[in-house]
Amino acid sequence: MSCTHENKPDVIEVPITINRRWPEEGHTRIPAWIYTDPAVYKKEMDIFFAGDTWNYVGLECEVPEVGSYKRQWIGDRPVIMVRNEEGEINVIENRCAHKGAQICWQNTGKVKDFTCPYHQWNYDLDGNLQGIPFRRGALGKGGMPKDFDLKKFGITRLRTVNRGGSIWATFSETAPDFETYCGEEVLAEIDHMLPGKKLRLLGYSRQLIPSNWKMYLENLKDPYHATLLHSFYITFGLWRADSKSECIPTGGGAHSVMVSHNEGKKKTEATAEMERFRDDLQILDAETVTPRAEFNRGRVGGAWVFPAAQFGIQANSLKTRHVIPRGPDAHELVFTYYGYEDDDEDMTRLRLKHANLLGPAGFVSMDDSEMLKQVQTGIAGYPESVSVVEMGGRDTEPADYMVSEVLIRAFYQYYREAMGL
Amino acid sequence: MNAALDWNHMSTLRTALRDFYDDYGTCLDDWNLEGWVGFFTDDCHYRVISHENKQANLPLGLIYCMNKNMLLDRVTAIRETTMYEPRMLRHFISGVHINSIEDDVIRAQANFMVTEALSDQEPTVNLVGQYQDIIIRTEEGFKLQYRDCVYDNYRIRNSLIIPV
Amino acid sequence: MTDTLNWVAVGAPAEISPDTGTLRVVVEGEAVCLYKLEDGSIHATQDRCSHGNASLAEGYIEDGMIECPLHQGCFDIRTGEAVSAPCKVPIRVYPIKIENDVIYVSGESA
Questions:
Q1: A with B: how many residue pairs have Cβ under 8 Å apart?
Q2: Which of the residue ranges A232-246, A301-315, A332-346, A407-421 would you say has the lowest mean pLDDT?
Q3: Distances (CA, A) of B9 to B3, B5, B12, B102, B108
């Protein structure tokens, strides 16, 4: 599907000037101003979210019926995901073609068509403008010009793709096809989690993290911290530094795939070293940390699909993560949890139990949101300061171990080129 | 039954329930997590869930304990493993309302508001919502068999460190 | 045949506006739109568009269709059928008769 209206997405005519220089060491260094500079933020919103990228919008099961819609954002641009009369899923701008008001004012709903409350301009579920009040005028006076062509003033519809029930969209006519964009490794992770089975929505978790959106991206490309910050993992022997694992940068460094193999609670040299391993602490409800074998046994991980989505499995918890930037110093993190329609009651219970590890009250995730706030606060006063990411070396090649910052280095190698920094 | 007696009974019950709700709030305000577990029955359900999810019949909770062991595990995890910035949390509970009584099973609700004061920020309204409860009258007093903390917030302000 | 319909007098054909070809009246609490077509025939349908809160009496007649002023969806005046988007649900048609230069509309279905 392509944009079918003359009312095309904004073309950025005014170049954004960023008078900054990256540290000369290159991708082993991260300058703090990328987390605070408004011009950097604006350029990111344009080239990453409105450029040649595919952006996660939602899951098919969120809009089950004709006219079901969900409100969403791609970067800072509000959009609507809606199921049309033919059962296809559209992604359209959440912006009336008339004066720009948001059409959808709720997170979810169901409509026959879209009517903007301001002047009642009416659109069908594909975004086509169907009618305008007083088009012929009133009492013989006024009205729109005779040559006013409704076809030119619809709501912009984005190119979309439905991959196994996940919906992606791009504002760009020139973005490559979705498979090419993702690459083999990322696609394999998405397909692994969405094998074409009918999905069942379990619910959302939303939080506002007071840090730049890229800090979350880095956090999910940083297996180095997993066993050091997340005591829950190490205390209950769920993830050890010597676990078999892989870190694979792809898409030139924009995407990444991370896999780790859990092996249950065992005391080895590596765990004995970790200060916080506690033999005396047991989880009373064993199910909370014991997955039922579903895919590959004991495999945790997933893919970061640039710019802002993560697909990953945590025990039996299936979820997507989506980042919505809210200015340079905050981002919204949304988890969408799902199961399959053929899940039995036990499996659903496990999926809900394992979700206790994630999100704003998650045994593991809480550490991250707390930490990211500290990083943003720390660098905010020192925008000229520089972070160093040399764990695992200085290269950007795939690694077969976890204690590495290679995925972050590879990302900034990509980032610098894309941003012209 | 005498109408005046009825009124007295309800009023007394409601007062007792208000005390129970306040004691619960104070317990958490004091970070007495171990004491918090004592408010529940063994076969309890405790969930912190958004209004968004609850209204759409989606079961996902940010905190979802399906029995007392999970409450205890959550306390262990917070005490032993969670990394978080220190803060003061304070409950303001009001609007206690009894929806039905059947023998010793009381269905009740109340509004909650929790403020949060971090060490470098002014207090904020952190979480607002409604407790939706099934309370059992036992020999040891009231016990929560079911509590859904249904919050109005569109999103959580960063993290939710302790139960609500 | 016995006439069992409950007829309500609503006005004279001359009261239907020569400009718009429509007249809005109220029959037993319901808003009804009267139409006078080019061939002189008189018709009646519900006045409220089935798509939105609009009065069809403020609409535009063309080729036996009434175009709703709100979003330009059309209905067949004779049958009430919705013939163009965004209108999908048909509108109610009322039986009428004219006696002694007075239009009568029945609130019951024909």
A1: 124
A2: A232-246
A3: 10, 6, 5, 14, 15
Interchain proximity A112–C88, CB inside 8 Å: yes
Closest in B62, B69, B73 to A359, CB measured: B62
Across the interface, whether the CB atoms of B159 and A108 are under 8 A apart is answered no
State pTM to two decimals. Answer: 0.90
- Cβ neighbours of residue A182 closer than 8 Å, sequence gap 6 or more: A54, A190, A251, A255, A305
Would you say A119 and A99 are in contact if contact means Cβ atoms under 8 Å apart?
yes
Q: Minimal CA–CA distance to A34: which of A25, A26, A44?
A: A44
Please list every residue in chain B whose beta carbon sits closer than 8 Å to the beta carbon of residue A363. Answer: 77, 81-82
Q: What does the domain layout of chain C look like in residue ranges?
A: 7-106
Give Cβ neighbours of residue A175 (< 8 Å, ≥ 6 apart).
A51, A52, A53, A54, A159, A181
- For domain C7-106, give the CATH number: 2.102.10.10
> Given A208, A283, A377, which is nearest B73 (Cβ)?
A283
Residue type present at position B95: G
pLDDT digits (tens, 9 = 90+) for C31-74: 999 999 999 999 999 999 999 999 999 999 999 999 999 999 99
Regarding chains C and B, contact by 3 or more CB pairs under 8 A is answered as no
Give tens-digit pLDDT for A262-316: 655 544 555 444 444 567 788 899 899 888 888 765 566 699 999 999 999 888 9
Question: Chain C residue closest to A133 (CA)?
Answer: C70
Place of tokens 């011009």: A39
Token reading at C41: 């025939």
